[in-house]
Specification:
Residues 337-348 have a biased composition (Basic residues). With 348 residues, the chain is an alpha+beta fold. The chain has helices at 11-23, 32-35, 47-57, 73-81, 91-97, 100-109, 124-133, 158-169, 176-179, 238-254, 286-293, 297-305, and strands at 4-7, 27-29, 61-63, 85-86, 139-143, 153-155, 188-192, 198-207, 211-220, 228-231, 258-267, 273-279, 330-332. Helix 4 (73-81) runs antiparallel to helix 5 (91-97).
Length: 348
């Protein structure tokens, strides 16, 4: 039976999804109703419109793209009730990865380090006490917010903490829902700020039973806007790479992660690393991973959603964090690019 895919996104992302679907013999379409202009503050694609468009066209799969719907557990649950398969993790996994406290708890359970700090939200007074306990080290502060990535503040002293509180409290003038501000009653999340750290992302792919890695990548400035990407990460000893990939695989395995995911870490100058988040979406950095691994990640998403296993994708060796790197280094400094080699196809 030929799969029919509704693409709830536009632009280059939609083109890549449609190309991957065509390569696999799927029919795909984009609904104008789904993507018509929304009021400010509303998601690009509306859940009700997506469900109506899918029902009219007889779609059996929905790709939410890179928008807010890809993180919406309620939307994924509604799609399942309507008989639609969403390309991405199920609601129970989204519930965990959308909450920083849940992510920190998961990391602790599987022995993956996170930046030192309280496990949940604290009061402003407790935030001040935590800052004092750091003995001169800076603190990272995030408001408790409905937004997945609220604005963060680097706090170095008590004066900085007072200034951050004043800024957040000053937003409570009827714009709370739009700005995602936090009140003193809601509390804040705090953790030690890792000085001079660089971001390193590990790409994973899972079939619900086994999880493979596609090595790591890092952003770099290099005078480009947006930043360029490098894979594998620069100046990363083999022993650190092994620990980093192993940590990502343990996290994904604990979630029984289905689909393509990104585990994001901070790597300190002393080569200590800390988990900062888990993301189910494909962003700009995934292109460099495609070039390094010779794999189309959009096609990988679709194949995993239709039930292909890690073995079908030819990724059995990628279950090992000790897998040697391929020859060469992939660099992307702007725009999307196609993988250097074709994605692996099933024999069927």
């Amino acid at each position: 039976m030929r799969q029919t895919l509704l693409i709830a996104d536009k632009g280059k992302t939609a083109v890549r999804i449609a190309k991957a679907a065509a390569d696999l013999g799927w029919h795909s379409f984009i609904s104008r109703e789904v993507l018509e202009e929304r009021p400010a503050g509303r998601p690009r694609a509306d859940a009700d419109r997506v469900l109506r468009a899918a029902a009219r066209a007889g779609a059996d799969h929905v790709h939410p793209g890179r928008g807010a719907l890809s993180l919406d557990a309620h939307f994924v649950r509604r799609c399942a009730q309507a008989g639609l398969t969403v390309i991405g993790p199920p609601p129970d996994v989204l519930k965990i990865i959308n909450d920083r406290g849940h992510v920190r708890a998961l990391a602790g359970a599987v022995g993956v380090p996170v930046a030192p700090g309280p496990s949940g939200p604290v009061s402003w007074e407790d935030a001040g006490a935590f800052l004092s306990s750091l003995r001169g080290q800076a603190m990272l502060l995030r408001p408790v917010s409905h937004r997945r990535r609220p604005k963060t503040y680097v706090i170095r002293d008590a004066a900085g903490l007072r200034q951050a509180r004043a800024r957040l409290d000053g937003r409570l003038d009827g714009r709370l829902d739009r700005a995602g501000a936090a009140s003193a009653e809601a509390g804040v999340r705090v953790e030690e700020f890792v000085e001079h750290a660089r971001r390193v992302e590990v790409q994973t792919a899972g079939d619900g039973r086994l999880v493979a890695h596609l090595w790591e990548r890092q952003p770099f400035r290099g005078g480009t806007r947006p930043p360029g990407w490098l894979a594998p990460a620069a100046d990363l000893p083999a022993s650190t790479r092994f620990l980093l990939l192993d940590a990502a695989l343990r996290l994904a395995d604990a979630l029984a992660y289905p689909g393509v995911g990104t585990m994001t870490f901070l790597l300190s100058p002393t080569r200590r690393f800390f988990l900062t988040g888990i993301d189910p979406r494909l962003h700009s950095g995934h292109f460099v991973t495609e070039r390094l691994a010779g794999l189309d990640l959009f096609a990988t998403q679709l194949r995993l959603a239709r039930g292909d296993r890690i073995g079908d994708l030819g990724l059995e060796e990628h279950l090992r964090p000790s897998l040697p790197l391929p020859d060469g280094t992939a660099t992307v400094t702007k725009g999307p690019c196609r993988p250097r080699t074709h994605h692996r196809r099933s024999s069927s």
